[in-house]
Amino acid sequence: MARSGPEVADVFRRYGEAYRERHGASLCTAQRRVMSAIELCRTAALGGHIEHCDRCGHQRICDNSCRDRHCPKCHSLARAQWLDDRRSELLDTQYFHVIFTVPQPIATIALQNKDVVYNILFRATSETLRTIAADPKHLGAQIGFFAVLHTWGQALLHHPHLHCVVPGGGISPDGTRWISCRPNYVLPVPVLRLLFRRLFLNYLVQAFDAGELQFFSSLEPLRTRHAFLRHIAPTRKINWKVYAKPPFGGPEQVLKYVARYTHRVAISNDRLLGLNDGKVQFCWKDYRDNSRRKTMTLVADEFIRRFLLHVLPEGFQRIRYYGFLANRYRAEKLALCRQLLQIPPPAPNLEVKKDYRDRYEEITGVSLKTCPQCHHGTMIVIERFECAPCRTPRMDTS
Fold it and tell me: From residue 186, how far is each of 94, 244, 245, 339 by CA, in Å?
């Protein structure tokens, strides 16, 4: 069912051109591409098809989506498929939700060096978890986990952090047994915090020395090594935020939570409340005030600026897998995990290729074929129309 309220696309369509005129010099190619894709999503400019109900004769026009990974309206099927795939890999053990966050002085550098610093965030996080887990003083096992990059908070400000879903145990060094962690306790957070900070800052300094970091505008003074080291020095003395807790409702709860953010960026259309007089109103959860739901109003220019903070570099992988869940060894290692945990192997996948509408209904339970008018007939495609070549945006579909 179509939304009756405002959408992110409405903000871009109404105020995007004026934003380009005011801030064109500061917009990168990726941000321009995202703006164009969202503006044209589900419009005739991208083509589409006409469907006809075989029972009541109802017709509807379905415009194509932009398929850009930053678009709030796209990738619901991909998200559902990803969740289904992860669910099939769950083991009969505890699962923990571990979050790694960088302090604000580092986040400021990350905003101007997304590719380099976000990669460092993944690298430092994965090495921290695997190193501490492999230490016999803590777990003494090879663990497996996946990490999802978030760069935003509820108010859409820049807040880079990783959400990791970690099974509560791992494979022994000799591969002969499953080592479980203690109930409701995976790894010591103070130890994780210290190692994460040390690894991250070491890799950041290495990136600076290799000339991989760029600084401009207010950060231009950091181009000298002395100023750069002075900027990050205070972060060596503070506690970096690392959280680890078991999911209250089991592993399914964490998967569903993380899946909400794997195939979109910054804000969902459901959170938008109003779009009037050049201002955007949306709801947000204030975690500093007992997670109370509040309403925030921003001028459209500021809303667009905050949204574009979270545009990722082209081809950047925001979901990554490590340990026994690493792509190269996943099938073999998961089979060993199931054997050690005495879990029966999953049923073989004999599925034949299906129409995307059938697959969507199978995963989500929502039918895209049933007639929305009579609720009995089937919508059949009777005509297709092509997009307008001059208006087709160049999309980032990675």
Answer: 9, 8, 8, 22
Q: How far lies 336's CA from each of 141, 142, 211, 325, 343, in Å?
A: 14, 12, 43, 12, 10
Burial 169-186 (b: 16+ CB within 10 A, else e): bbbeeeeeebbebeeeeb
Backbone angles phi, psi at 294, to 5 degrees: -130, 170
For the chain, the first-to-last Cα distance in angstroms comes to 27
- List the structure tokens of 170: 């791992």
Angle at 348 between CA 347 and CA 351, to 5 degrees: 115
Compute the residue count for the chain.
398
For residue 337, which phi and psi values (nearest 5 degrees)? -60, -45
Q: Are 180 and 168 in contact, with CB atoms under 8 Å apart?
A: yes
Can you tell me the distance from the alpha carbon of 314 to that of 29, in angstroms, rounded to the nearest whole number?
A: 10
Nearest Cα residue to 259 out of 93, 125, 91, 85? 85
- Residuewise pLDDT in 10s, the chain (398 residues): 455 689 999 999 999 999 999 998 889 999 999 999 999 998 888 888 889 998 898 998 888 888 888 998 887 778 878 888 888 888 988 899 999 999 999 999 999 999 999 999 999 999 999 999 999 999 999 999 999 999 999 999 999 999 999 999 999 999 999 999 988 888 999 999 999 999 999 999 999 999 999 999 999 999 999 999 999 999 999 999 999 887 767 777 877 777 777 877 889 999 999 999 999 999 999 988 888 999 999 999 999 999 999 999 999 999 999 999 999 989 999 999 999 999 888 776 655 556 666 766 665 667 778 898 898 898 888 888 887 654 444 444 33
φ and ψ of 133, to 5 deg: -65, -35
Decide the pairing of beta strands 59-63 and 379-385: unpaired
Whether residue 393 contacts residue 33, with contact meaning beta carbons closer than 8 Å, is answered with: yes
Distance CA 210, CA 88 (A): 42
pTM of the full structure: 0.89
